Structures are given as C-alpha cells and as structure tokens.
Amino acid sequence: MSERPTDLWLDRLRRAAAAVARPLAFMEICGTHTMAAFRCGLRALLPDSVRLISGPGCPVCVTAPGDIDLILQAAQKPDVVLCTYGDMLRVGGIDGDSLEQRRADGADVRIIYSTLDAVDLAEKSPQKQVVLAAVGFETTTPATAAAVLQAQRRGLKNFSILASHKRVMPALEALLAEGDVSVQGLMCPGHVSIILGAGVYRPLAQRYRMPCVVAGFEPLQMMQTLALLAEMNQQGQARVDNIYAPLVREQGNQAALRLTERVFEPCDAEWRGLGKIGQSGLRLAAEFEQYDAAARLGLSRREGGEPPGCRCGQVIKGKQTPDQCPLFATVCTPTRPIGPCMVSGEGTCAAWFKYGRATAAGEAS
Amino acid sequence: MSGTILLAHGGGGQLTDELLEQVVRPRLGNPLLDAQLDSGMIPLPDGTRLALTTDSYVVQPWEFPGGNIGRLAVCGTVNDLAVCGAKVLGLGLSLILAEGLEKAGLERVMDAVAQAAKQANVRIITGDTKVVGRGAADGLYITTCGIGLVPAGVDLSPMNVRQGDVLLINGPIGEHGLAVMMARQMPQMVCPLQSDSAPLNGLMEALLAAAPLTRFARDATRGGVAGLCADLAKASGKRIVLREADVPVTAATRRAAEVLGIDVLEVANEGKLVAVVAAEQAEAALGAMRSQCWGKGAAIIGQVGAAGGICEMVTNMGGRRIVQKPYGEQLPRIC
Hints:
The complex is a heterodimer of chains A (365) and B (335). Chain A has 365 residues and is α/β, with parallel strands linked by helices. Chain A is 42% helix and 17% strand. Chain B is α+β, with helices and mostly antiparallel strands and 335 residues long. The interface between A and B is large, with 54 and 39 residues.
C-alpha cells in the first residue's frame, strides 16, 4: 500500500494516543466536519482509545421547535413566499409537520442558495410577502445581514426575515462550563472561524485547559487535527493551533462581523437540546425591526417539546451517540426523521445512519 | 405514508421505492414487473426476449449545458434497453406541450431528438402530441417508450453477480446532475460542466462482445452510482465494495458538488453505466469500453464481495463508509 499523506498524521495520532494511555474524546463542533469525517471514513481508522464526538454545530439541529413552528406558520399565510436553505425543508416543527409537507399542500416554498436571491424575488414580486427563514451560525449571519441592508437600500416593504441565528461561542462556553461533557480537545469549526478568527478560542483554551485546533474539511486537515490534539494531551499543553490559515486569520473577517453587528444584537436564545443560553442568539436591532416577519405577519410563538423518546438533545451535547437512542434506525430514519439530527444533512444521526450504521452490523455478515 | 405526494417521491430514492411498494406493486404486481429491471422482458418462443421500456422526462430547466430534454429522452430510453442487453428496435415519443411554448424551442428539442437518434442509430417510429393550458405544465414534458430484442443467451441480472466480479464504469460521474443543478440554482455562474447524456447501446454491444461474462449493467441515472450500487447490493445479496480513489470524477464536477454541498456519488448521470463483469474478463471489458467514444474515461471502480447486501466504500484515506441509496430530493446544505 502506497504512503498516503494522512498516514503520517495517523501514525502520530496512534503514538500520542498510546503514550497518553487514557481514553481521549475530541469534539468536532461543526456539522460539516461531522459529515466530512464520515464521508472520508475517519472513524474507522481511529485507535480504540480515541473517540470523536459531535458537538452542537448543525444549525438545523439546534433550531428550537418553536422557531421551526414560526417558519411553518409563515409559509401558511396567504401571499407569502418562504425562502429557505435546503436543509430546512424536512425538519419537523411542534406538530411534526415540515416545509416539505407544506409545499406539497400548496405553500410557496423556495430553496435558495444566496440570501440576495430572496431580496431579488421580493423586488420582482411586489404583490407577495417574501420571508427569509434565516438560520445558521456566524457563517451565514452576515449574509442575512447583507440581505436586510439590501432590502433597506432598495426600499422594499415586502421583504422580512425570521431569524434564529445562533452564536457558537456562548454555546461552547455553556457546554464546557456545565462540566458534564468530558472532552479532551476541540476540532474548531473551519467556516465559523473564518468569520470569528482563531483568536476567539484562546480564552477558552486557557480557562478550561482545552487543546483547540482550527481545521478545514479535507481528510488531511482532520487527521492532522486529531494528531495535534492527542499530542497536546500528551505534552500537557492547551494551545490553539490554526491549521486552516490563511483562510482563518487571528482576527477573523472584520467586515463580516461589522455587518452582523450593524443589523443584529445579541439576545438569549433557545437551543434544541441545550435549552436557553444567555446571549447566544441574535435579534434584529431596533433600526431594522420592520424586517421582522413575526411582527409583520402577526405570528405568535408557540413553545413545543421534543418528540417523545428523541435523544437529539443528548446527541447535540455529545453525551450520547445516535445508536444509544431507542428511536435511531428503528422508527427514526432519513426517510421518516423524528429528531432534527436525522433531518439535516449535517446532523449527527443522519451521518451515522448514512455512512456509519452498517459498518458495525456489516462486519458480522 | 403521509397523505400527499412530495417532490421527493419522484427522486428515485428511498421514497420512490416506498411509493412503488405501497401503492403500485400491490395492485399491478406480476413476475415480469417484479423483476425490477430497466425494461420489462417478454420471452419469445425462439429463446430471444422482447424488451419494453417507458420513461417520462420533466427536467427543469429543459435546456441545459450539453443538451436538452429531447436528447435526454432519446438517450435515457435507449440506455434502459441497452443495459438489459437489448438491441434497440425503435422508440416512441409522446409530447406534452404547454400553451405558450415557443415553437423555436420545440424545434431545438426535436433537433436534439434527431441528433441523438442518429448517434444511437435508432428511429422514432411512433408518437403523440398533446397541449395543456398555460400553467398546467412547465414548458414541455416528454414520455417515451422503447422496444428492443435481447439475443438468446444474454441474461443480465443482479442475481447473476458473483463474489470476485468487478464493477466498471464508462467515465467520470456526476456531470449531468450537477450541470442541471448549477443551471437551475446558479444560472448567473459560469460553469464548465456539461450534461453527459449519451446513447450507450453501441458501448453495450461492444462490451458484451468483448466480455460475454458480463453479469449485469445499469445506467446510473437518478440516485447516481450510490443508488445503483446500494440497489445492486440489496438485489444480489452481495457486499459491493467501491474504491473512492478509482471512481472517476473530474475536478470541475468535484468543485461544483462542493459548492452545492452534494455528494457526487448520489448525483444523476445520463451517459454512464455500471457493469459487473467476471474478473477474468475485466481487462477485456475495460478495453472494449475505452474503444468507444462514450467510454474513453472508463475505469474499474470496485468489486463484489461475499454475502452482505450492503455497499461499502474504501475511502482515499483508507477508511470505510457505507454507501446508501439517497433519500429522494437532493437538498443543498446550509454552509
């Protein structure tokens, strides 16, 4: 077998893990990492003592049922065109209903790639109310902010947003402060870090003695991350290594951050599985309140629980793996998802189901 | 099953299967239909079999880089016959046109039909035309049928697949689906991708002549290579092992898939087929494919393992993952 570039790092990971001589759990925070790790078969190569657990980094998965419900309510209003990212189509609200079902029932639901497509649509259809269902972390927030500013510049009265944007750092902080998730290192999210910068992890690394590596999504970067995290554990260090430079700078993308700050202000937010976390969400700043779809369309927020039996909350915290959920792969499947982690392409359960499930079972056959 | 048809029910994935199993098969099931081949096979007294196939084309946009709905209709129908080992006898073409469609557009579609038919060396021998009111259809839809003759002794089926056989594909994957998706989702972007739609009957004939121990073939349309291989694993009861490094993907395709957040293995092709051939004839099969104009990029992409009923991929980094049939509609990710 020829030498693969990843072999070098795999070898270093194995040696460091053996030297540490205690189990190591590393958390990948970003849903794209979760999917990429499965897609390249990373888990199958890890030493027995190293576990990769998934954190709360899938934007669809952490969106509270009440927020999904608002989006579904909006889609049902007459003359509303609801624009959304593809992942949101199948996630269930409080009543288990989804945008996919609403679309089949006649709602005008459009999948967009760029938030500006929604603004263009509003300009072209003055008789319609165009609502952008805006979810996601720091990566997608600036695009929503840009759309709001565009709508303002063009004087559009028929464009509004349902924003449930989330901030990664308060959630990460809450997770580590809670202390009941045992993690010995973080694979920090590549895309989010492009916006936030590698610097944001330094206080965290110091406070919790937590090794951090900011990584991209190629197999080589992910394997290198695990090796570096294991070596930091071996050496008793808690550095922040940025191996996704030059895309990720120390200070991040200041222009994007300013865009977000201009349009949004931090607020407490409800996370699926994690509950309410202080200052972890974003709401429209006073100047932009007229773009709030909930107010414009007279929507009222309902509080809803998790689907009975669903362990997505535990999975999002990295406290349980999908196969420990009684619903996983029995009644909860990608065709009939119950929890959000099964719906989203980035969801931990979907990744396990799609790429990992039969590996264990399959070995027996 | 929920009470209404979702778009995903037409995606050729797990939901399509469910619809067929719950609604169609219980009512219409019979041994010929239940064989679940790309064409229905009618045995004739002389040992040959008549292959009959039908297909509908509703692609949006109906003109895309590298072709249009007319080319797609001819190639898709020819390929459904060809992968069953049939020599194509003739095609039928049914047009459903929307009121208001520009005649020039229809002319371009018919030109493409004529060109593809010429390339495939087949004739359109019957047809029908209907017009529906504005808004009842989006531009135009095409339904086809095709009839072919399978020579005695040719029997391509998942049931014939044996441990040790190899899987071949006739070129790089994902181009059709991504070209259409880019045209649909990001029309403002300049994208070098072109649909790969091509008639593969000549290639199939060359393959069967060079490698008589060809066990099975199927065109990797909706559901892509992932759907095809997962189905093959299930139908044959064998473990199908693909090697990621050997599956041909062009750099442009890979980048487009990354931009859209889609797994290229699940993307539809319209000019690619996967053939399973006995190991001792693998090189002959590969040579035969590469000698054809639609097979220059052919490659051996995997092999058939022991019993297992699942498809697995050995990744570039040496890991393993399961390859499953896609759910249905391909949904782009948020970031």
